[in-house]
Amino acid sequence: MNNTIIILTLLSGLLVLYHHLGYPLLLKLLNQAHHDDCYIKPRQYCNSSADTHLPDITLVIPAYNEAQWIAEKIRNVAALDYPSEHLHVLVGCDGCTDQTYDIALATAQEPECADLHIKIVNFSKNRGKVAILNTLLATLTCDLVALTDTSALISIDALMIAAERFKDPKIGVLNGHYHLLTPGSAGEKAYWDYQSQIKLTEAALGSTLGAHGAFYVFRRALFEPLATDTINDDFILPMKIVLAGYRADYENSIHSVELEKASDNQDQQRRRRIAAGNLQQLIRLKGLLSPRYKGIAFAFFSGKALRVFMPFLMIFSLLGSLLLAQSLLLFLVLAILQIVLYSLASWQLLIKPKNSNKVSRLLGYLVGGHIAGLIGTMHYLLRLDDMRWTKVK
Questions:
Q1: pLDDT tens track for 43-56
Q2: For the segment 56-76, what is each residue's pLDDT rounded down to a tens digit?
Q3: 144 DSSP β-pair partners
Q4: 78 contacts 107 by C-beta, under 8 angstroms
Q5: How far is CA 203 from the centre of its chain?
Q6: Rounded to an integer, what distance in angstroms lies between the CA atom of residue 224 and that of residue 240?
Q7: 231, 241, 249, 376: which is closest to 307 by C-alpha?
Q8: Among the four given CATH numbers 1.10.10.10, 3.40.1410.10, 3.90.550.10, 3.40.1710.10, the one describing domain 49-261
Q9: In the chain, which end has fewer C-beta atoms inside a 10 angstrom radius, N or C?
C-alpha cells in the first residue's frame, strides 16, 4: 500500500512539473520550427485587378448586451483594408436587453461605414452563442468565415493576410495574435503572452489547439453545426476541422486587441467556464489523442488533457507528500516546498499586495486558475451550471 502511494504521489508531482515547466520548455525548444510572419504589401485601400482573385469573406459578430462596444467594433470592421465586394459583415444580436441593436443600426449608417455590406439580425429571444452561430453560419455561401468578439479590435490588414495564408489548401483554420489592451493583472498578461507562444509552437507540431474567440478564420465548407450545449465553441469548432484532416495554423502578424478589462470576478467566472469546457472537449474530441495525429496528439495531451486533471493531481501530490513526510525525507522536502509555494499563491490571492514580485503574482494567477478549474470541472460533472451564454457582470 505504501509503495502504491509513493508511486502515485511521485507520478502526480512529475505530471504537475511536466505540465507547467517541462511541456513549455519542450515547446520553446521546438519554437524555431515555425514559419516566418506573413507580409502583405499594403493596398492603401486602392482597388486593383488582383482583387478579383481574393476569397469572399463573411465576418460574423455574435453579440449579447454589447452596447458599450458595438459601435467601435463596426467602425473597426469598416476600416479593414479588404475589397468591399468580397467582404460581408453579419451581426447577430442574441435577444439583447440593452441598446446593442439600435446602436449597431445607427453606426452602420455613419459615413465611414457607407461601403460596408452589413446585415444586422435581431433575434427576439436569447438562445445562446452556439445557437446563434449555428443559425447564422447556415445561411452563408462565402469562401471564408471570420468569427470575432464585439470587444476586440482587429488589425486593418488581417483579412488580406488571412486570404494569403488560405492559399495553402491544407489550412482549415487560422488564428491571430491576441493582446489585452489593459490586463487585469500582471499574472493575466503573463498568462496570455505565454499562451501566444504556445499557439505559435503548436502550429509547428501540426496544428494550434483551438482558437481565441477574439478573431479567427476558417473555411465555410468545413463548418459542422455545433451541439447546442457546447461550452468552448472556439475550441470545438476549429478542432472538428482538424479532426477532418486540415491544419489549424497561427499567424503572428494578425492582431486582435481586447478592449474589455476583466475584473477578478469576471476572470474567475470565465476560467470556471473554460475549465468545464475543457472537460467537455476532452470527452468529445478524445480522438485527437490517437497516435495518428502525432504532434497534435502530443500537444492535446500535454496542454489540454492534463489541464483538466491538474487540480486533482496537485491535491494528490500535496496530500501524498504530507502522508509520506513522516517516514521519508524526500517527501518531507517536497511537502515543505509545496506548502511554501501554495502559501505564496494564497497570500497573493487573498491579500493582493501591491508590491509583490512577478513570480508571486504569476504563481497566484496560476493557482487561482486551477482553483477555478476545479470548481468548473465539478460543476460540469454535477450538471450545476446553465450553459447558456450570459454577459458576466
A1: 778 888 888 899 99
A2: 999 999 999 999 999 999 999
A3: 57, 219
A4: no
A5: 15
A6: 8
A7: 376
A8: 3.90.550.10
A9: N
